[in-house]
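Narrative of activities, Objective 1.

The group set out to show that a structural description can be obtained from nothing but a protein's sequence at a throughput compatible with the screening campaign. Below is one input-output pair from the validation batch, recorded exactly as produced.
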Amino acid sequence: MNEFEIIHKYFSKLHHNKSSLNLNDDVFFDKKNKLVLSVDTYVEKVHFLNFKKPELVIRKIIRSSISDIVCKGVNPKFIFICASGNSKHFSKKNLKKIYNSIKKEQSIYKILIGGGDTVKSNNLTFSITSLGYSDKIVFRNKSNVNDDIYVTGNLGDSYMGLCSLQNKLKTSNLINNYFQNKYYTPDIQLKLTKKLSIFASSSIDISDGLFTDLDKLINKQNHSYKVFLNKIPISKTLNSYIKLKKLKKIDLISKGDDYQILFTSPKSKRKIINNFSINNKIRITKIGTIVNGKDRSVILADSGLQIFPNNKGYFHNF
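Output recorded for this entry:
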């Protein structure tokens, strides 16, 4: 079983209140107390390759954690960091690097350390709780038929960064460094939080892959999607690399770790979204449409023919 099947079969049957959102969203949302909270765990060799660059690993996991709250249209205020590891992981040299990176992330995203815990272990793991305050969020499963589908930023660069770190790319140091930087420091769209609830009907961050997360976005609705491959935004660097190596775009844009915002919106909001994108210099791209569930979800090429990706995204299988 994968993680979502486990939640559905076992934990969704346990008692929980409406703030848990049926265990089918990125966050816990207590509207009465204006509390929005998310929890994420990161394991070495699963969520990051190794700890050779602790200053970058900690930045990656902080950004991916607050992404859960940001994609709901909420500014993160506090993070709680729990860590397990040994003296090699948390040497004085590494701790200084970690400290400096956390301080830098605090400055960029205006977040505070709320607390945490440390445990001695041979296994290196981190668990981060992110907390923000709001009396409204953008939920999953609230899209409507004929809604537009949007994504922010570019997709695929982070996956290429992972490939680079695994020595799978044969290219220049400049290109390798670009992709690795996107892997370790994804662009979190904090500017979008104040406006997202104005035009988004539903939202999720892209952590496990575009199509996997799109499936999650509509998983409790009788909806499907129509997505156009040529509309899915990628960077100039990735586009050039695809052409140079004669790769297929479909194989690179749904591997996960992008942490961009995937959202749906009524067609009536197109002008608002376009103006916001231009005024705030944030790339927001319409990639498709929500359709009735009686029609199956499709990914279409320029020719109009349906494309079938080899891998729709990442799952934790047990």
